[in-house]
Design brief:
Layout: E1 2-8, H1 13-25, E2 31-37, H2 40-47, H3 58-73, H4 88-96, H5 105-116, H6 125-135, H7 144-159, E3 167-170, E4 173-176, H8 181-188, H9 197-201
Parallel strand pairs: 1-2
Antiparallel strand pairs: 1-3, 3-4
């Protein structure tokens, strides 16, 4: 049985859609899923990049695309009142809900729907207070070990070659994004393509650097 580590940040609509798509994508497959909240903004800073919502043109396209993809997938998606927002409170709450810092699917589902259903402000203090009461975390969201776990998760992800969310890591393979789910399923099913083409496809020499 393979272990799949899912690195996610509730700020990402693609992470939400991928999370909703996982049960269907992995249907009939014996596996263990581990959810690890990470701070996407810290990854962007590490790689010297801006997020999709911070680039003119790309921002508008991202929102249009995810609304379309949600429609195609039959998933409810309502854009929050403002985006991007500071997701730290949500990430720490997710980690605080587990003694090991690995939230279960119910916790992640609740947090994703807090952001991506209803169209309210994801960082509204009263909504966050209500959400905390609903989830009844095992630890304080302000506990130093909770904050440290989020930092450790993010550094772990970067060390594994993760550069965005959602990302799914299986063995030494890194699968990024909603559209990578069929590719990950093929690997888990033992597709022989991965024996040779995986490494070969990434061996192209860089022709120019900026």
């Amino acid at each position: 049985m393979k272990t799949i580590t899912c690195y996610l940040d509730f700020i990402s609509p693609y992470a939400y859609l991928a999370f909703e798509s996982l049960p269907h994508s992995l249907m009939g497959l014996s596996h263990r899923m581990v959810y690890k909240p990470v701070l996407f903004a810290a990854m962007l800073k590490h790689h010297g990049q801006l997020g999709p919502a911070e680039v003119a043109g790309k921002r508008e396209w991202t929102y249009r695309q995810v609304v379309w993809q949600a429609k195609q997938l039959g998933v409810r998606l309502d854009m929050p009142q403002a985006h991007p927002f500071n997701p730290l409170a949500l990430l720490r709450l997710a980690i605080a809900c587990s003694a090991e810092g690995e939230p279960n699917r119910y916790v992640c589902d609740t947090l994703f729907k807090h952001v991506w259903q209803g169209g309210a402000a994801a960082d509204d203090p009263q909504r966050l207070q209500n959400l905390t009461q609903q989830l009844s975390p095992q630890r304080s969201v302000d506990a130093p070990e909770v904050k440290d776990q989020l930092k450790a998760n993010t550094q772990e992800a970067i060390a594994r070659g993760v550069f965005g969310v959602p990302t799914f890591c299986v063995d030494d393979k890194v699968f990024w994004g909603l559209d990578a789910l069929p590719m990950m399923r093929a690997y888990l099913d033992g597709d022989a393509w991965f024996d040779s083409a995986w490494d070969a496809a990434a061996s192209v020499r860089s022709g120019i650097k900026r």
